[in-house]
Every structure is written in C-alpha cells, then in structure tokens.
Amino acid sequence: MALSAAGLSVLVLAVTSPAAALLSLLAGVVLAGGLTRGSRRILDGAGGIYVLALLVGGLGDAGSEVLLLTAIASILAWDIAENALSVGDHLGRETDTTRLEVVHAAATLVVLTVGAGMVFAIGTAASGGQPITAVVLLLVGVIALVAGLRR
Amino acid sequence: MTQGFDTERWHGVEGLVLVTAAAGVFMRAPPLLLLAGLGIVLLGYIRIATLDEVSVQVERELSDSTPDADDEVTVTFRVTNEGTRTLFDLRLVDGVPPALAVSDGTARLGTALRPGATASTTYTVTAIRGEHTWDETVVIARDPSGALERRETRHTETTMRCEPELAATADLPLRGLTSQYTGRVETDVPGSGLEFASIREYRHGDPIRRIDWNRRARTGELATVQFREERAATVVLVVDTRSEAHVAPTTDAETAVERCVDAASIAFPALLDSGDRVGVAAFGPEECWLPPSGGGDHRARARRLFATHSAFSPAPSDAAFFPSIAMRRLRRRLSSDAQVIFCSPLTDDYAVSVARRLEAYGHAVTVVSPDPTSTESLGARLARIERDLRLRDLRRAGVRVVDWGDEPLGVSLERAEAGWSR
Predict the structure, then answer these.
(1) What is the extent of the structural domain holding B13?
(2) Does residue B225 share a domain with residue B243?
(3) What is the pLDDT of residue B1?
(4) CB A99 to CB B111 under 8 A?
(5) Same domain as B27, residue B95
(6) Going by C-beta distance under 8 Å and a sequence separation of 6 or more, which residues neighbour residue A147?
(7) Does the global pTM surpass 0.80?
(8) Are the CB atoms for B287 and B189 separated by under 8 Å?
(9) Does residue B299 share a domain with residue B154?
(10) B32/A59 touch (CB, cutoff 8 Å), yes or no
C-alpha cells in the first residue's frame, strides 16, 4: 500500500511551477488520507486535484517535458493507490501482494512512458504552427476512435 | 469471447481528457494538448483490455489430514496457471472451513502468473473436533490495466477429520433412576449389594450367605440382611445445539456448544466404563440420535459421532428448528427408565423448560451447564444474572445442576456434588 508514496514524491519533485506543485502536494496528502481511510471517494478527489494541478501547470510556464513527467507520476500514483485499495478489499492487509502490485505498477508505468514518449515526439515534430482547428479536429477524431474501440 | 465485468475504476478519464484538450485549445497552451495526447494513450490502453477465461488449477495440501484436537495443521495452497496467457493480476481467497481459525499466515494469495508457473502460500489452521471440508476457492483475475475483472470459483476436495479420543477425566454421579441390570448406581431397593440397608424376617429361598448369623446365635431367629441394590442406569446425553447455545464469552473463546460436546464426551466413556448404557442425542436443528447401548463398538460409534456429526459442528446450522417437534421426538425416544444428562449453557428460558419437562416426565435430569457469560459489559452482566436465576429455578424444581465455569469439569462436579442431596 505504501508503494504509492513513491509515486507521490516523484510527482512533487517533478513539478516546477509553484502553484501546481502546491496543488499536487495537496493531492498527495489527500491521496494518503484516502489510503489510510480506505475510501475510494477520497482517492477520486485526489485524482481531481491532480488534474487541476496539471491544468494549472499547463497554463503556467511549466514545459511540456515537465508536464508529461508530472502527468505520468500523477496517474501512476492514483493507479497504484486505487489498485492497492482493491487488493486490500479482496485479500486483506496481512497478505503479501508485493508481486501483484509491482507487476500492475510496472505495466502502467511502461504504457505511460511509451505513450508519453510518442506524444512528445509527435508534439516536437508537429510544432510547425498548424491551424488550431486542425489540431482540434485531430484530437476529437482520435478520442472518438478510442471511445469506439470495442470493449 | 466472454468478457469480465467492468471494474469502473477508470470511469471519467474520457471527460478529463476532453477537458484538458479543450483547455489546451482555448488557452493556446500546447503542453496541455500533449497532456491530452497522453490521456488518449491511456484511454487506448484501457479500451483494448481483454480478459480470457481464467484457467488455473488450485491445489491444497494438508500436513496432517487426521490431526488431534488443537494440533497446528499447515496447509500448502498452490495455484498453477494452465492457460496460454500471462495472468497479470490474480487474487485468490481460499475457502477455509468456517469452523477452523487460521492461526498463522493468510489463506489468500495475490500474484501475477506466467503460463505454466505456480505460486504457493502456506497457512496454519488450528484443528478442532469435527470433519472439516474446504469450500470453493474464489479466483479473481484482472487485466493489466485493472479495467476488467472476472470472478470464478474452483473446487478442490480437501477434508480434515479430527476425532479426539474419548477420555473419562471426570466421573459424573447419576441419580437414582435405574434399569434392572446390575451396575454401580446405589438404589433404595433392598437386595444384594455392598451397603447395608435393613434386616427383615427370613423367607424361604433367601441365600444362606445373607442370613444374619449373629442374630441367629443371639435370639435363635433367622433373619436376612438386605443391602442396597446397585444397578446400572440408562443415560441419554442430550446436547443443546440450538443456535441460542452457540455463544461464547469472547469472540475467540470456545462456544458453549463446543464445551457441551466436551462435557458429553467426558461423561460418555465414564458412564460406559461403569457399566451404564449410554445414548447420545442432539437437541437442535440437526437431528442426531445414538440409542443407549454399551460395549466397545458403541464407544467407537460415539467417538465418531461427537467428532464428525454435523449436529455437533462448531458452527451453527442454518436449518430451521421446531422446538416442540424436537421435544416430542426426544420424549418418544427416551425409554421410561432413562436418565437424562442435559448439556446446555441455559442462555434462554426454553432450555430451562426442556429440563423441567423431562424431569416432569420422570426422567431424572442432571443439567451440565458450561458458563458462557462474562462481566465485560452491563448487558453481559445482566445475562449472567439471568442465567443464575435460571439455574436457581432448576435447582428449586429438583433438577441437579452442575454450573461449569472456567475450571475443569471434575472440579465443578465436585463442588456441585457437595450441594446435592442423595
């Protein structure tokens, strides 16, 4: 369960813009609270604050790399925390579930890292000043595509 | 392909991605667009999740499948992935029999398994009397992102049987109601025996050994000495197994039913050894009846009965219980010369009425009552007082009562005996 603490600290370090760092610190505290209380709702609240922190960071002067790293850390922290809660529900506190949780965290981390790398590469390659409508349409199209993927 | 169900853990991510993208577009912040891009990758990862049928095999191994009571039994719990895909997130909860308590380790396992790989865990249970069958194992599998979940059960037949030896550690004194066979219960019937009873006039056919020769020498009259005849009794041990009797002073203490069965299994061999015919009955939702008899076979039968009969299981039964029918059935089964030893914690008035009714029908009743009350709270103290009143009620009605506290049964018997009249 304490695994997520690592995610939190990484995140706090990764944020450079002060307002966003403050917000994500708050999110980290809320997350820890949610974990000790075992409440999924508090965890979701922490997730919301993370998103807010990312938005603030993005609108401020945080660079793309920092923002993506922060996003990876935030999502990872929330994911590990939520997974820890569900494992705790199913298996209790005494059971040794390190392997399970590490595998889960590793899978998420790999996907996020690869994804962030891809996005960053596309971002730097395509930062040639396309019209904003094109970007919007592209985004909407991709979201529709992903949403339409079969479950 | 069948799918697992949605765990709903990623719900709302789509919305957050759209919000981020919109913010990026309208505020002209390229980093936010990248962020939205990352969100889309995440969404894709969640969306492509699939979860096939989980094919795992569960095995269980006991260090001893026929342990003695209170032995520690180590259970090795093994799971093997027999499918062709890696199971990233596998959680298993073993179905430990309800009556057994896990004393060390946990009966749960969480792991990730490659095809063909095996994971195992061990835990320890404390054996208690009875036949314990393991329930199904619950298998929960999730895809790597945790978006889909699948629950299944696996059944592996495992049974542990614990039959304690019947040991007569305390002698239970019986009351005067006896059968016509010779035994050790002293009756007021004059005849042959050990303890002097009376002298009466000689009648033709009296054995020469019992003629009072001193009197003959003194007075010249023939007289016959009579002794108190010692006879065997027929005893039926009735154990209160109603759900009301499944009570214990603390959560991890032995329940009153357990102690009642203990008392019965102490009394059984003691009575059998002294030549009495002993039977066993359960007064509860599960029906159990062992007719009074004697001999080695009977002892073995009783041993198995106490250990494995579902009526005496340490966990309460779910079956419906109709007290008046059970009472009628019990009465029909008791022969008229049968004494009853009723083992009950006396936690409600019905138990008292059972004892009083049996006494009224002419079966000399002795109640052995393990004390399940405590003094921890006000309610518990009230329950203790109520039980004390019930005991007093029974004693007043002429029923012998052994109030069995924490001490060994023999000690309680000794104390109770001091207060009994012959």
Answers:
(1) 5-48
(2) no
(3) 41
(4) yes
(5) no
(6) B14, B43, B47
(7) no
(8) no
(9) no
(10) yes
Residue B336 lies in a domain: yes
Paired tokens of B51 = 């979860």
Pick from A19, A79, A29, A78: nearest CA to A54: A19
**B106 lies in a domain?**
yes
Q: Which residue of B has its CA nearest to A81?
A: B9
Shared domain check, B214 and B248: no
Is the dihedral angle over the CA atoms A30, A31, A32, A34 positive or is it negative?
positive
Q: Does A122 touch chain B (CB under 8 A)?
A: yes
Provide the token pair at B176.
């005067």
**Of the candidates A108, A31, A51, A36, the residue with the CA atom closest to the CA atom of residue A76:** A108
Q: What is the pLDDT of residues A54-99, one digit of tens each?
A: 888 777 776 777 788 888 888 888 888 888 888 888 887 777 788 8
Per-residue tokens: B152: 């299944």
pLDDT for B310-323, tens place per residue? 888 888 888 888 98
Q: Looking at the DSSP assignment, which residues form a beta bridge with residue B236? A: B279, B340
Looking at beta carbons, which pairs linking B377-382 to residues 24 or more positions away fall under 8 Å? Answer: B380/B249
Contact B34, A119 (CB under 8 A): yes
Helix or strand run (H / E) with residue B376: none
Q: Catalogue the E-assigned strands of B207-309.
A: 223-231, 234-240, 277-283, 289-293
Same domain (yes/no): B297, B368: yes
Does B301 share its domain with B378?
Answer: yes
Condensed to tens digits (0 to 9), the pLDDT of residues B129-186 reads 888 888 888 888 888 888 888 888 888 888 888 887 777 666 777 777 666 666 667 7
The answer to whether residue A100 neighbours chain B at the CB level (below 8 Å) is yes
Q: Which residues in A lie closer than 8 A to residue B12 (C-beta atoms)?
A: 44
- Contact list, A127 vs chain B (CB under 8 Å): 30
The phi and psi torsions of B396 (rounded to 5 degrees) equal -65, -30
B263, B368 Cβ separation under 8 angstroms: yes
